[in-house]
Structures are given as structure tokens and as C-alpha cells.
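Task: sequence design from structure.
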């Protein structure tokens, strides 16, 4: 299990199936919410996660195992709903409050 303190998160990636659509919307929303904390938020297809390791990866439950295989030393947080998912809000809250973020 991988984990990181929310206060140390500087790069977050929203992983998706093809790099378009809902994940882009989530990444833009998170970028606005976390701008003041200096967190860079991007999106990437799960099979093309960046070589420059992100601190945290967010992805839909159906992609969780692939993301964990690609990024075994990075916390991978999976969510079920693209809008209003408590797991996504939990990551935001952990970054804002300096709480621990760990993968599933």
C-alpha cells in the first residue's frame, strides 16, 4: 500500500481510458480547487501515465488495477462517480488539511 501526506502532494494525475471527456472535467475542477496549494493537476490515459511520477493518481474503479500496475509506488485512489464522488473530495480535503492519502 502506498501513501503520502497531503501536504507533500505537488502533482496529481487523473487517469482515464482515452484522455478525453469526464477525466478532463475532473482535472480542471481539481486544478481550480488546488491552485492555491501549488498542486499541478493533469490528466493522462492510464496506459500512458507520465514518466515523471505524480504524487497521487486518481482514476475510475475500472482502471484502478492498471494504474496500480503502472505506478506501483504511487497512491492510486479509485472513485466510482465522475461527479460528487466522496473519494475525490477526500483527496482534496487531505491535500488542504495535510492528512494522509493512501491507495485502496
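Answer:
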Amino acid at each position: 500500500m502506498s501513501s503520502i501526506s497531503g501536504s507533500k502532494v505537488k502533482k496529481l494525475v487523473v487517469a482515464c481510458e482515452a484522455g478525453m471527456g469526464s477525466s478532463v472535467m475532473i482535472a480542471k475542477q481539481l486544478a481550480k480547487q488546488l491552485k492555491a496549494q501549488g498542486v499541478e493537476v493533469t490528466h493522462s490515459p492510464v496506459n500512458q501515465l507520465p514518466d515523471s511520477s505524480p504524487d497521487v493518481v486518481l482514476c475510475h474503479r475500472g482502471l484502478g488495477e492498471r494504474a496500480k500496475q503502472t505506478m506501483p509506488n504511487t497512491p492510486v485512489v479509485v472513485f466510482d462517480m465522475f461527479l460528487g464522488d466522496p473519494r475525490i473530495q477526500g483527496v482534496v480535503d487531505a491535500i488542504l488539511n495535510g492528512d494522509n492519502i493512501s491507495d485502496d
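The first helix runs from residue 22 to 34.
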